[in-house]
Amino acid sequence: MHIHILGICGTFMGGVAQLAKALGHTVTGCDTNVYPPMSTQLEQAGIGLTEGWGVEQLDLKPDLWVVGNVVSRGNPLMEAILNAGLPYTSGPQWIGEHVLRGRQVVAVAGTHGKTSTSSMLAWVLDKAGLQPGFLIGGVPGGFGVSARVGEGLPFVIEADEYDTAFFDKRSKFVHYRPVVALLNNLEFDHADIFPDLAAIETQFHHLVRTVPSKGRVVASLDSPALERVIKKGCWTPVSHFSAESQQADWSASILGASDFDVLHHGKTVGRVSWSASGLHNVNNALAVIAVAHYCGVLPADACKALCEFPGVKRRMELRGEIDGIRVYDDFAHHPTAIDTTLRGARAAMNEQGAPQGRLIALFEPRSNTMKMGTLRAALPDSFAAADAVFCLTEGITWDVADALAPLGERLHLVGSVAELVDQVAAQSTTGDWLVAMSNGAFGGVHQQLLQALTERKGAGH
User: Any idea where the Mur ligase C-terminal domain is (predicted)?
Assistant: First the structure.
């Protein structure tokens, strides 16, 4: 089959393309942002790319057009496809019908932590010799790719609640038909497509409805929204996890910032000592161990694998250290994710002992929800662990200064990445951790900071 993918350079659609190619299909695609790293991955896989939405692409005559949710009505190529009556489908539906069918599908859902948890789970299953397939919205360490078919039965898929396509407003994850649904957490997000939390809960219940009675739902015990979802009706056994409650089926005894014992029904079954930190990562790990247990992996073996987990790009990823100043890249863009990331970083700094540097947060409000200012009231508290906060105001229409005023003297507003780099590089001292948080490229701030710090060191400052 020849498929042509519209929006091929998105993380998800790029993964679809690589899986389709690995399965022997002819794959081509187009996008308006054909640039590395995804364009490089696709070209290395032998996938032809076209820049833009030109109608001349109809001459390719693929068997099927696979449409990403970046495409909307008015797109010239999509209009031509519709007018010609050509066959088209969405990326999630294509994956569900051509990749996931017959696999032991594990769908990892939640407002936060999907990429990290999916990556951990793929790693644990792989270490156990189960050779899982996966499709993840990031690049998990140890694999180097965001998607692979895998030779084993399990398939781990990051299950996004965002809508499927312009012609299918259901969440992507309803197409996956998982045997195991991992529900990590649930809060309000995606204000551009969901009116309120109840609307997202409805979509999560659609996912729960698809899990067979012989399968498993693994859910956080600490999420009232997930509790409401399950109470709407669940026909599948449920296992709960919690890093803070011993009442959960899977719980933890915290030993340090990066060390904890794992308990199953109150009995210690393993210990994790790893490079990650923060309660959010403990919860991610507990969820992974619970799912892996269902898939046949002993908890002790899962713990051992997590001790060796190499991390995920853009999840507290250390980009470099100059003169004792560390620059980290993190994807956090929701207030809860910002809070847990910074608290985890603070705990890691404290465990390293004196002399202590400062924890400096660099924040780009880039997601659709952040640009709308929907969650701005929660932002000041989310930066509680930071000693200083630099917020990029470029392109933001709501009053950032007013919303973040409770931060007081810790707040620094900057109008451009260049201004941010100049100010942060001038103020940073040995021992500081600079954590850049955005769901985009943040204007290359990480490399610019490292370059500025290198130049400052060379000048003898």
Answer: 314-440
Total length of the chain = 461
The first and second tokens of residue 325, run together, are: 């100043």
The per-residue pLDDT for range 106-126, each reduced to its tens digit, is 999 998 888 889 999 999 999
Strand arrangement of the beta sheet that strand 88-90 belongs to: 48-51, 26-31, 2-6, 64-67, 88-90
What is the model's pLDDT at position 354? 45
- In the chain the first and final C-alpha atoms are separated, in Å, by 61
**Ordered DSSP codes for 76-101:** HHHHHHHHHT--EEEHHHHHHHHTST
Identify the burial level of 247 via C-beta atoms within 10 angstroms of its C-beta, where 0-12 means exposed, 13-18 middle and 19 or more buried: exposed
Q: Under DSSP, is residue 176 helix (H, G, I), strand (E, B) or coil?
A: coil
21 is in an annotated binding site: no
Bridge partners of 388, per DSSP, are 360
373 is in an annotated binding site: no
Per-residue pLDDT, 312: 63
Gap between the Cα atoms of 316 and 141, Å rounded: 12
Q: What is the pLDDT of residue 109?
A: 94
Q: Tell whether 371 is in a known binding site.
A: no
The answer on whether 340 is annotated among ligand-binding residues is no
Same topology for domains 100-307 and 317-458, yes or no?
no
Total-model pTM: 0.76
**Cβ count within 10 A of residue 236:** 18
68 is in an annotated binding site: no
- Domain coordinates in residue numbering, the chain: 2-89, 100-307, 317-458
- Is 256 annotated as ligand-binding? no
For residue 368, the SS3 value is: helix
pLDDT in the model for residue 459: 66
Q: How many helices (H) and strands (E) does the chain have?
A: 15, 23
Q: Is 110 annotated as a binding residue?
A: yes
User: Can you state the angle between helices 335-352 and 279-294, rounded to 10 degrees?
Assistant: 100
Residue keyed to tokens 């880039």: 366
Which pLDDT score, from 0 to 100, does residue 461 have? 57
Residue bearing tokens 């780099």 = 421
Reply yes or no on domain 100-307 having CATH 3.40.50.1110. Answer: no
- DSSP secondary structure, 254-293, as one string: EEETTEEEEEETTEEEEEEE-S--SHHHHHHHHHHHHHHH
Record the tokens describing residue 43, joined without a space. Answer: 């070209």
Is domain 317-458 classified as CATH 3.90.190.20?
A: yes
The CATH number given to 2-89 is 3.40.50.720
